[in-house]
Amino acid sequence: MAAAHGSSQRDLHDVPPAKRTRVSWGAIFAGAVVAVAITLLLTLLGVGGGLLTSDAITGADGLGLFAAIWYVISGTCGLLAGGYVAGRLAGSPSPRDAVLHGLTAWGLTTVFAAWLATSLAASLISGATSLAGTAVQATGTAVGGVASGVGSATGQVAGGALSAAGGALGAIDQIPLPDVDWSKYGSMANDLIEKTGADPAQTADEMGDQPVAAAKDFAANVRKWVEGEDSVTQEELIQVVTSNSGVSEAEARKGLDEINSAYTTAKTEATEAYETAKAEASDAYGAAEDRATQAYQTAKTEATEAAQTAYEEGTDALGTAALASFAVLLLGALAASFGASLGRPDEDEFRTRG
Q1: How far apart, in whole angstroms, are the C-alpha atoms of residue 337 and residue 344?
Q2: Using an 8 Å Cβ cutoff, are 285 and 170 in contact?
Q3: Lowest-confidence region among 160-164, 283-287, 299-303
Q4: Which of 78, 150, 267, 285 gives the lowest tally of CB atoms within 10 Å of its CB?
Q5: Per the UniProt record, which residue ranges are transmembrane (predicted)?
Q6: Who contacts 78 (Cβ-Cβ below 8 Å, separation ≥6)?
């Protein structure tokens, strides 16, 4: 009777050591399938509930926090159930065997989830390639300006001021030396001619035997003299006037001196106006150059600071995401292990299995 009873029961110690610890891949795959299915089921539940109650959640931050919490809950519950199934179906009453089967089921689930996420990301990237290319082409002009170093964003800021500066610099050489209106002083020369009895507007044939044969060229010669040409001297002009009229030498000299003084004063004023304009143009160029340099440096500093800030924020975000992923995976491993411990058969149940 005892033998019959013993034949219907088995003791853990009656099992050969080589067969006490074995890997049940069926149990592992079953646990992984259950974990994925329950996780998917709870995820759909969370998505549906979240969308239906989205009005009660304030802002995108609140919705994102809800999604993250529900993701952790659904994953943990799925792995807990998967670990339970793996530990139960492994059939070993050993806590170590159960935990190892639960951890293996967790690892298989994690690998599958990583593969699925990678495939999905690859599909999204492949599908968005043409759209991204179009967007890059559409924004190529704007991005191309800022692509190298600080880029055209700073170059355009400085370029506007430098363009104005260049215009001011070019204007320096384009400022003409103002010419003196000779008509005012030519009339003074003609007054001297009229005292000789000649009319400068007459032609040589019309003048005939009038006293000044060269009256028509007198004003032009006076202009050459006041402008400093060596071909005409004041004495020659005085001689022309005095030898052909009753004008005295002193009166002729006085008239020519008045013409020369008035013309020299006008010329000086014109030269001073030119120098003033040139100095103002130089000052404008210097100011524009300073503004351009300052604008460039400011834009360069701002671009550098923005890039540094973006880099720091990006690394912080990646670090936070890595730590969060580590915590979630660790929680999943613990859940799968705990579920496997709960699901393992005890020794009494193991003995009664035929």
Answers
A1: 11
A2: no
A3: 160-164
A4: 267
A5: 27-51, 63-86, 98-117, 321-343
A6: 34, 35, 36, 37, 38, 39, 40, 42, 109
pTM of the entire structure?
A: 0.51
Give the list of residues 6+ apart from residue 157 with CB closer than 8 angstroms, or none.
Answer: 295, 296, 298, 299
Q: What type of residue sits at position 134?
A: T
Shortest CA distance to 101 belongs to which of 314, 333, 350?
Answer: 333
Contact between residue 161 and residue 290 where contact means Cβ atoms under 8 Å apart: no
- Write a three-state SS string for the chain: CHHHHHHHCCCHHHCCHHHHCCCCHHHHHHHHHHHHHHHHHHHHHHHHHHHHCHHHCCHHHHHHHHHHHHHHHHHHHHHHHHHHHHHHHHCCCCHHHHHHHHHHHHHHHHHHHHHHHHHHHHHHHHHHHHHHHHHHHHCHHHHHHHCCCCCHHHHHHHHHHHHHHHHHHHHHHHCCCCCCCHHHHHHHHHHHHHHCCCCCCCCHHHHCCCCCCCHHHHHHHHHHHHCCCCCCCHHHHHHHHHHCCCCCHHHHHHHHHHHHHHHHHHHHHHHHHHHHHHHHHHHHHHHHHHHHHHHHHHHHHHHHHHHHHHHHHHHHHHHHHHHHHHHHHHHHHHHHHHHHHHHCCCHHHHHHCC
Lookup: tokens for 18:
């080589």
What's the CA gap between 57 and 323, in Å, rounded?
26
Mean pLDDT value across residues 54-64: 64
pLDDT at 280: 84
What are the residues whose beta carbons fall under 8 Å from the beta carbon of 168, sequence distance 6 or more? Answer: 281, 284, 285, 288
* Amino acid, res. 189: A
Confidence of residue 285 (pLDDT cuts 50, 70, 90): confident
Q: Which amino acid is at 89?
A: L
CA distance 166 to 154: 18
Whether 218 has a pLDDT exceeding 90, the answer reads no
Instruction: Read off the amino acid at residue 144.
Output: G
pLDDT of residue 2: 40
Distance between CA atoms of 139 and 185, rounded to whole angstroms?
Answer: 66
Please name the amino acid found at residue 341: S
Token pair 């100011």 is found at 287
